[in-house]
């Protein structure tokens, strides 16, 4: 995986993608410092290139620059968190409204396999893997719409919401939405898109009910260890 990551011409995009993945799975948490010297050494590049990557991350609202202190993983305030949840709902409903005529046997099988994978992961104890697959079902639904822009925006919102979960989720760990996914799929199988839309709304209600806007204490991982793990995957 590390060799594959090093191939793209624009290393800034590689660094940005690596950090974004680390944020999504919870390895990097709100307020963690994104250390330019370690990034530059790890990726074999200059600080100028690293700053370009961090600027890209900031444009996606996943990092914030503090004058004279460097860049840090973004820390969404409660108002921003509420807006992100509301925006997610709009996007997810737009996905459901666009699925009519787009879900056939092949799409149903892919969703079925995704849910099967969810069950396997959630039956184990790997918390990182649970977080890593959290958006797979939703990404697939967005993919089926054929609207790449919608999918990209949803991906960004879900990544930003991983920071919200880290700060404000009531219970620790990664909650499993598999029963809701199964309910959505059951409706799609019968061609009941209105029913699938309602099942998605119920799913989002459940997700939002798990958020409480009080400060949570987060643990910090070693920054270099996170980078090494993210870029050494096979």
Helical/strand content category: mainly alpha
**Cα Rg:** 18 Å
Total number of strands: 3
| Integer count of domains | 2
Instruction: Estimate the helix proportion, in percent.
Output: 55-70%
Task: Please provide the ordered H/E string of secondary-structure elements.
Answer: HHEHHEEHHHHHHHH
CATH superfamily of the largest domain: GntR ligand-binding domain-like
Question: Summed up, what is this model?
Answer:
Helix content is 65%, strand content 4%. It has 234 residues and is mostly helical. The protein folds into 2 domains: 2-75 and 218-231, Winged helix-like DNA-binding domain superfamily/Winged helix DNA-binding domain (Arc Repressor Mutant, subunit A); 78-209, Four Helix Bundle (Hemerythrin (Met), subunit A) (Up-down Bundle).
Topology:
Elements: H1 2-5, H2 11-24, E1 33-34, H3 36-43, H4 47-59, E2 63-66, E3 70-73, H5 78-97, H6 105-122, H7 127-132, H8 136-144, H9 148-168, H10 178-189, H11 193-209, H12 223-231
Antiparallel strand pairs: 1-3, 2-3
Helix pairs in contact: 2-4, 2-9, 2-12, 3-4, 5-9, 5-11, 6-8, 6-10, 10-11
Overview of this structure, please?
With 234 residues, the protein is mainly alpha-helical. It has two domains: 2-75 and 218-231, Orthogonal Bundle (Arc Repressor Mutant, subunit A), CATH 1.10.10.10; 78-209, Up-down Bundle (Four Helix Bundle (Hemerythrin (Met), subunit A)), CATH 1.20.120.530. The protein has twelve helices and three strands; from the N terminus they run H-H-E-H-H-E-E-H-H-H-H-H-H-H-H. It has helices at 2-5, 11-24, 36-43, 47-59, 78-97, 105-122, 127-132, 136-144, 148-168, 178-189, 193-209, 223-231; strands spanning 33-34, 63-66, 70-73. Strands 1-3-2 form a three-stranded antiparallel sheet, with helices on one face. The protein is elongated, with a radius of gyration of 18 Å.
């Amino acid at each position: 995986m590390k060799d594959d990551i090093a191939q793209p011409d624009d290393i800034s995009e590689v660094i940005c993608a690596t950090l974004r993945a680390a944020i999504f799975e919870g390895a990097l948490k709100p307020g963690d410092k994104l250390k330019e010297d370690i990034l530059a050494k790890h990726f074999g590049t200059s600080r100028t290139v690293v700053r370009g990557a961090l600027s890209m991350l900031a444009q996606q609202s996943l990092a914030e620059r503090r004058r004279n202190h460097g860049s840090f993983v973004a820390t969404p305030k409660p108002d921003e968190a509420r807006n992100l949840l509301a925006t997610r709902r709009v996007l997810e409903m737009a996905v459901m409204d666009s699925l009519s005529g787009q879900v056939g046997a092949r799409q149903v099988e892919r969703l079925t396999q995704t849910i099967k994978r969810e069950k396997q992961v959630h039956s184990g104890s790997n918390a990182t893997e649970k977080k890593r697959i959290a958006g797979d079902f939703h990404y697939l639904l967005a993919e089926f719409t054929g609207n790449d822009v919608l999918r990209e925006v949803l991906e960004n919102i879900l990544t930003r919401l991983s920071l919200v979960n880290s700060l404000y989720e009531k219970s620790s760990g990664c909650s499993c939405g598999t029963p809701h996914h199964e309910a959505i799929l059951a409706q799609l199988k019968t061609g009941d898109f209105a029913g699938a839309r309602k099942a998605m709304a119920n799913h989002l209600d459940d997700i939002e009910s798990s958020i409480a806007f009080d400060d949570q204490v987060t643990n910090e991982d070693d920054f270099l260890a996170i980078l090494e793990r993210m870029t050494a995957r096979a």
